[in-house]
User: Fold this.
Amino acid sequence: MQWRPQWDNPDLPGWSVVAAYVLAAAFCARAALVKPRRALEERVSARIWWLLAFGLLFLGVNKQLNLQTLLIVLGRRAAFAGGWYERRRLAQTIFCGALTLAGLAALWLTGTRFRRFFWDNPWAFAGVALLLFFVLLRAASINHIFVRAGIPDGDEHDDKKWTWVFEIAGSACLARAARRFAAGKAGAGSGPATPG
Assistant:
């Protein structure tokens, strides 16, 4: 397996996912720019929206450049150089387990630390959770965790054919949350907020 810069998903589903990521990122950036930002809570909200916007843009770029393959190639070279290539499956399992624990811990800590933000924007939390689930699912698939668990592998189980649903759904949730947030802030000083 080698990696080189190229379009990895140059079909309609692939570009649709990229468009969903970019559109959701634009909504998050718009939410981050909504005035006013006088209170600390408003500044924190703006930072979170910017973080979500950049995260979505990264996922959109990664959808086409397939940067995880570059990570796999580097890991494989490190395994050869370190003399533990024969034990790479164990390393893959440990990596996926650690990634899952880190992802769930990050989701819990984020939800706890920014409870007020996600309480006010539940669609944002749903979007983050769906995209995290997609990332963990994709990592498990790439590292053949399902095969080792006895789940058959093959074209009929190709995760690229169906995991895009989580990407679209997560992006849609974040776009909805950002749109509602921006509409509420824009209408806060001039009457009732626009329903989202």
